């Protein structure tokens, strides 16, 4: 063994131990999942609206359907919200006073996305591994009432004002809203356009029931009706014949894959013989690689639909389907809330073409698909 004669470096301080993985960004993902669930619950328990109205709340004020919330549950949910900076807890108050935290305003604005993720689609993610293979036998539940309500919350900030502006430039007397969800859009259109009537169509009984309640509560049942129906298989009917504007928001992706989408879009020209404009708004598939600028909703929306084996088109793919199905885009408006949203203003091709062979074929195919 040969000892080195060169000077030895002075021993340095022992390297700092790396922080344990149990605290830090990955660990925070775990707590974020709990906080996301707490946001969804806080929406339903009325906590968010109380705080947004400028109020404070005590843990024992929380109610679900008139029943008090268990103090342990209240404390656990509030802890998760406090961890996320969404509320501040004043523990010196024996009843645990809750005030908005520094991140409350953002959480309130974005609450619809959390409610959609957790209450509307939670089971899709719970069973992600089971749903991964391309087969049908895995059952999961989506809460369609929550999907309808969360869609309304997501659309209220930007999409609805955009609809207001576009509709203000159109002359119309009767509107049909396809996949009408909560009925909120139709109610808004009725209130802004006193002479207009409308009909909502939705596949989910929970949405139809909710929309019926909303319409009745607004006193609009004399101008608005809602019925259960599959938009993919609409046939000409008395309540559709005078419709001159169709709206369809956050459901167009259900028309896909492409062959089916072209058939549905073509068929709409038959089911609505007096249609002059269709306003179709949906979130399109992003082709960006996820990164630090990935906005809320994108990963959840794309993953949930992948797990449900629902194809999400890009904006360009929508354009191809419109052209093939006889619709001309007059404009495309892009939204940041929801991120990746596009409102297409579409005009049907001339009525002469509506009687042509492609439309007749679509009607036959739609009828046989319905059997
Ligand atoms: C994400 S929600 C959007 C609700 C509403 N359009 C809004 O903007 O708030 C989608 C709605 O489309 C409905 N839907 C899905 N497929 C449908 C179909 N084939 N026919 C009719 N409604 C459908 C769902 O039941 C659900 O209420």
TrEMBL record:
Keyword presence, Transferase: yes
Protein name stated in the entry: Methyltransferase
Recorded superkingdom: Bacteria
Molecular function terms from GO: methyltransferase activity; protein dimerization activity
Residues in Methyltransferase domain copies: 175-268
The O-methyltransferase dimerisation domain, residue ranges: 28-93
Annotated keywords: Methyltransferase, Transferase
Cited Pfam families: Dimerisation, Methyltransf_25
Organism the protein comes from: Pseudofrankia asymbiotica
InterPro entries, sorted: COMT-like, COMT_dimerisation, Methyltransf_25, SAM-dependent_MTases_sf, WH-like_DNA-bd_sf
Gene3D superfamilies to which the protein is assigned, alphabetical: Vaccinia Virus protein VP39, Winged helix-like DNA-binding domain superfamily/Winged helix DNA-binding domain
GO terms for biological process, alphabetical: methylation
């Amino acid at each position: 063994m040969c000892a080195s004669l060169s000077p030895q470096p002075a021993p340095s301080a022992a390297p700092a131990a790396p922080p344990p993985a149990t605290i830090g960004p990955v660990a925070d993902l775990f707590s974020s999942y709990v906080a996301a669930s707490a946001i969804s619950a806080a929406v339903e328990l009325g906590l968010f609206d109380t705080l947004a109205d400028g109020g404070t709340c005590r843990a024992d004020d929380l109610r679900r359907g008139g029943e008090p919330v268990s103090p342990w549950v209240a404390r656990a949910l509030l802890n998760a919200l406090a961890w996320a900076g969404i509320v501040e807890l004043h523990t010196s108050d024996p009843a645990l006073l809750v005030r908005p935290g520094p991140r409350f305003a953002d959480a309130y604005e974005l609450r619809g996305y959390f409610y959609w993720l957790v209450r509307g689609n939670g089971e899709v993610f719970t069973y992600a591994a089971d749903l991964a293979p391309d087969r049908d036998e895995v059952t999961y539940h989506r809460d369609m009432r929550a999907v309808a309500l969360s869609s309304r919350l997501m659309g209220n900030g930007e999409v609805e004002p955009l609809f207001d502006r576009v509709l203000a430039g159109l002359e119309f007397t009767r509107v049909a809203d396809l996949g009408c969800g909560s009925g909120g859009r139709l109610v808004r259109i009725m209130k802004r356009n006193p002479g207009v009537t409308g009909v909502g169509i939705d596949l989910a009984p929970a949405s139809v029931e909710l929309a019926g309640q909303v319409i009745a509560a607004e006193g609009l049942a004399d101008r608005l009706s809602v019925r259960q129906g599959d938009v993919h298989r609409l046939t000409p009917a008395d309540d559709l014949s005078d419709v001159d504007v169709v709206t369809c928001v956050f459901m167009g992706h259900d028309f896909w894959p492409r062959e089916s989408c072209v058939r549905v879009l073509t068929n709409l020209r038959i089911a609505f013989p007096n249609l002059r404009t269709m306003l179709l708004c949906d979130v399109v598939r992003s082709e960006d690689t996820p990164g630090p600028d990935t906005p809320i909703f994108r990963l959840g929306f794309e993953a949930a639909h992948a797990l449900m084996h629902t194809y999400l088109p890009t904006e360009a793919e929508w354009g191809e389907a419109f052209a093939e199905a006889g619709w001309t885009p007059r404009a495309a408006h892009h939204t940041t809330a929801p991120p990746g949203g596009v409102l297409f203003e579409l005009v049907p091709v001339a009525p002469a073409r509506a009687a042509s062979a492609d439309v007749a074929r679509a009607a036959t195919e739609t009828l046989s698909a319905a059997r």
